[in-house]
Write a structure and sequence with these properties.
By secondary structure, the protein is an alpha/beta fold. Helices cover 41% and strands 15% of the residues. The mean pLDDT is 95.
């Protein structure tokens, strides 16, 4: 099977999450991704933890199907090697510190002088200009700056998202932006520059609370796992201190819920609860009504009733329960990935219908393909040995 990006060459000067997430998805589609890493130590995300048979959970998530080339780009010959790789590359991705590529003599203009058809994707916290350009940006910092923390958590305390949402957002927009530019380049034969900001990427996801606040005059409250503007929507206690999650999205569902779950059709017409805005306004009283009906039933019983009446519901799964989710098993959504420490399971990305549609190559060890890549561009083994001794590679 021909993969969508087969034949494309991507050079990624990457670390941590945002750029590796973007480049991994390009690799999934068949692109050849050469990951530039620091000699000896590699991407610092390799050392985040050792939970996956000795490898980092972040790293195995983000780095399958890539080739690892160790390269000291501050060394003159290291820069020369990088420039040689650019000559037939299609895409360059980088998420180094702001201005780092420019200081190496590898600005957008300098790279385009080598290859004017390059699609260059720069990922940073705040973008390539403006007063925040040199401000350090980690995921938590962007979650705070983009206002996510103001709407996440409880009334008493904000809470960060449990995953790196700012990095992931930036990686997704880098990925989709690159795909768009590849289509455009096929028509224009010209390269392009993408300037992806974590702040702007996560800000795009903050549209609803932003509009609600700016035009509505009040900010959505932090409501834990409850919805700030829809009720009932969230976790509700049941028997044995368990919790069931369910969501009512419209008046038809509300009437159905009252009739079939609460066994109180009149409640649906109650003046306090006969619209979503009224239910939100009076949710403390309504919560008592709901909990009174559910507290004597087990989680299994409540979920069975909700499911029978087509009301959206879920239990709170642990990550292990998600890993064993029957729907993922039934849809054959897991594949095996080779790593330097053995085979691991990986989730088939959402865009693929089956395993044959994607590249599912191994996760590389630090610098695993260095010799091979240098030999491709004309370096002899004796010269490669000198470069290693001089810590250029």
């Amino acid at each position: 099977m021909i993969l969508p990006l087969e034949g494309l060459k991507v050079i990624s000067v990457e670390q941590a999450v945002a750029a590796p997430f973007a480049s991994r998805q390009l690799a999934d589609l068949g692109a050849r991704v050469i990951k530039i890493e620091r000699p000896k130590v590699g991407d610092f995300a390799r050392g985040y933890d050792q939970t996956v048979n000795g490898m980092s959970s972040h790293f195995v998530w983000l780095n399958r199907s890539k080739e690892s080339l160790t390269l000291n780009m501050k060394a003159e010959e290291g820069k020369e090697i990088f420039e040689e790789l650019l000559k037939d590359a299609d895409v360059v991705i980088q998420n180094l510190a702001p201005g780092a590529m420019n200081r190496l003599g590898l600005s957008n203009e300098e790279m385009h002088a080598i290859n004017d058809q390059l699609i260059i994707c720069n990922i940073s916290g705040y973008g390539s200009n403006g007063s925040y350009v040199n401000k350090k940006a980690y995921d938590l910092i962007i979650q705070a700056d983009a206002g996510l923390l103001s709407v996440t958590g409880t009334e008493d305390a904000p809470s960060k998202a449990g995953i790196s949402v700012a990095d992931i957002a930036a990686g997704m927009y880098a990925y989709s932006g690159i795909l768009g530019q590849l289509i455009k380049r096929a028509k224009t034969k010209k390269g392009a520059v993408l300037d992806i900001s974590m702040l702007e990427a996560l800000g795009e996801w903050m549209g609803y609370p932003m509009y609600y606040s700016v035009y509505g005059g009040t900010s959505p409250k932090r409501t834990g796992a409850q919805h700030a503007t829809i009720y009932p929507y969230g976790p509700f206690p049941v028997k044995d201190n368990n919790m069931v999650f369910f969501a009512i999205q419209n008046e038809r569902e509300w009437l159905n819920f009252c009739k079939t779950v609460l066994k109180n059709e009149e409640l649906a017409m109650d003046e306090r609860y006969n619209s979503n805005s009224k239910r939100v306004q009076n949710k403390e009283n309504l919560r008592i009504e709901i909990e009174a009906e559910l507290k004597g039933k087990s989680a299994e019983e409540v979920i069975a009733i909700l499911e029978k009446n087509k009301i959206a519901n879920a239990q709170l799964n642990s990550m292990k329960q998600f890993f064993e989710h029957p729907q993922l098993q039934e849809r054959d959504r897991w594949l095996d990935i080779e790593t330097p420490v053995g085979t691991i399971k990986s989730l088939l990305p959402p865009i693929f219908q089956n395993k044959e549609e994607m590249m599912a190559g191994p996760i590389p060890d630090v610098g695993e393909q260095t010799d091979y890549i240098l030999q491709e561009i004309g370096y002899q083994n004796d010269r490669i040995k000198v470069l290693k001794d001089d810590e250029v590679i």
